[in-house]
Design brief:
The chain is of the alpha/beta class. It has helices at residues 27-40, 46-55, 72-85, 104-113, 135-150, 154-163, 176-184, 204-222, 242-250, 283-292; strands at residues 5-10, 42-43, 62-69, 89-93, 119-120, 130-131, 188-191, 228-230, 255-257. It binds zinc ion (ZN).
Length: 296
Amino acid sequence: MNRCLSILVYHRVLARPDPLQPALPDARQFERHMSLLKRCFHVLPLSCAIGRLRRGTLPARAACITFDDGYADNASCALPILQRLGLNATFFIASDYLDGGRMWNDDVIAAVRHARQPVLRLEVPGCDALQVHTLHQKQQAIETLLQALKYLPVQQRQALAGSLVPNRQEELMMRSEDVRALLAAGMEIGAHTASHPILAMQSDVDAYADMRRGKTALEDLTQAPVQLFAYPNGKPGVDFDQRHADMARLLGFRAAVTTAPGAAHAASDPLQLPRYTPWEQDRPRFLLRLLASRCN
Ligand SMILES: [Zn+2]
């Protein structure tokens, strides 16, 4: 039987809605997603689902839940909901940001959120005068800045984004104890590199070293093998390619997930499994999107 596996990807689950980031679910919305998922799908731990996909023993309407990056709200907001509903999830963590680090995209959002003038003047190519008076302008400015910085070399990107927010900002990423708590709660931990570079823009040596450093750091922290991997950004042919899938295999990962949309099949490369984001915020569309990607 050629059954499919739907793998969902989340990043953050906010304690309360953030008008600047309307695509991010808050806890109430996430709980609705998860309740619906539990009613309509057979939710499995990712490592278990991958084995069953290969052996052809997946149940009908199989789904997995994954989170990328390692945001603290995964442990504080999402975990209690998952536990209440008896659902398992896999958390892919970029190890450099644990214990007080900040990802560059959060500096961009903070710069726009705390802008004191209606026009934000930044030394970022193509973004020297961004209108940030209305909410819509702020959302647009964030999008413009994220696109302008995303594909810059990793050091330059981090430095530029960091320069946008001179003051110390709120801690957003997990601490080591959060990772241990997720594991103790029966959740799975996966690697997501150390510094979250766009692998395709790195030299092979640097890409491999970053992937390895992320895996080792999490294994040291959890004292357990880390066998699942998520490519940063994750678009095949853009953010990573076959070289990085080969590196993942060499490093001993059993499976790796991308952000190519769609469901995984028995014939899918276990080191390039597609995932999708349930963007739609209203229930029927969320359900529709899930159902559309299943095969039985
Ligand atoms: Zn990521």
